[in-house]
Each structure stands twice: as C-alpha cells, then as structure tokens.
Design a protein that fits this description.
Elements lengths: L2 H15 L4 E3 L2 E12 L2 E10 L2 E10 L2 E9 L2 E7 L5 E12 L2 E13 L5 E8 L2 E7 L1
Antiparallel strand pairs: 1-2, 2-3, 3-4, 4-5, 5-6, 6-7, 7-8, 8-9, 9-10
C-alpha cells in the first residue's frame, strides 16, 4: 500500500474518532461546540471542558464573526470583546467562586474599554461583580 494512502487513512480515522460535546460520568469533557439562532442571528461558541469546567481558550461568534474570546488560566478568565470589524472593544477578567448556592462567575479587576480606533475611552474597576470605580477618558 502506498504510504500516502496509508497516511490519509490514518489521518481520516484520527479525525473521525474525535467526538465533540462528550460527557463522561455526567461531566462535560473535551471539545464542545454550541450553535443557536435567535431572531435570525447565528450564535456559535467553541471551547474545551475538563470535568465540566471551561479550560484553555473559548471563542464566541455572531453571524460567523468573532465577538469574544475567553482564556482560562488558574481560575481566572481573561476576556476580550470585539466589534463587527474585529477591533477590540473591551478587555477584562472574571473569576469563578464557589458559594453555598452554587458556582458563580464574577467580573473582577480593571476592565478597559476602547473606541473603534483602539483608543482607551474608559476604565471600570470591579470587585466580585460590583462596580467600585469608573474613569472616563
């Protein structure tokens, strides 16, 4: 058998064996893709789970345009939002907190907001989801 054909068959089997939206012992694991259409707008999100907790980088799309990324690192989620042209509109962080009534994500720290040209137009500071200060530029 030709090595190219063998390589292609092995690659094909590898790609086909990767499942998305998989659960193991009621936990979401591996690659997940969510799709929905609301009022004619297509929404899609892609990312990975480990024991039902988001890991690595998640990407969110609206009508096939990237509108947000979330990068998970050591219990902190680093967030960037984008406008329809791909310009960054805001950056900030959120944090997962386990409480008696369940798990919650709170926006924390400094959030920076940008105009379409990349100029900073404001900074807001949050503690456990509550706005504590705001500076307009």
């Amino acid at each position: 058998m030709n090595w190219r054909i063998l390589s292609f068959l092995m690659l094909f089997l590898l790609v086909c064996s990767c499942k998305i939206n998989k659960t193991v012992n009621h936990d979401r694991v591996g690659k997940w893709v969510y799709k929905d259409t609301v009022n004619g707008i297509q929404y899609k999100s892609k990312g990975r789970y480990k024991k039902s907790i988001e890991i690595k980088t998640w990407r969110y799309y609206q009508n096939r345009k990237l509108v947000k990324t979330e990068r998970y690192l050591n219990g902190i989620c680093h967030i960037k939002t984008f406008d329809h042209k791909g310009n960054i509109t805001s950056t900030g962080q959120s944090m997962m907190v386990e409480e008696q009534d369940g798990t919650h994500w709170y926006i924390i720290g400094e959030w920076t907001f940008f105009d379409p040209n990349g100029k900073v137009i404001g900074i807001k500071k949050y503690e456990k989801g509550e706005l504590v200060s705001e500076i307009a530029m």
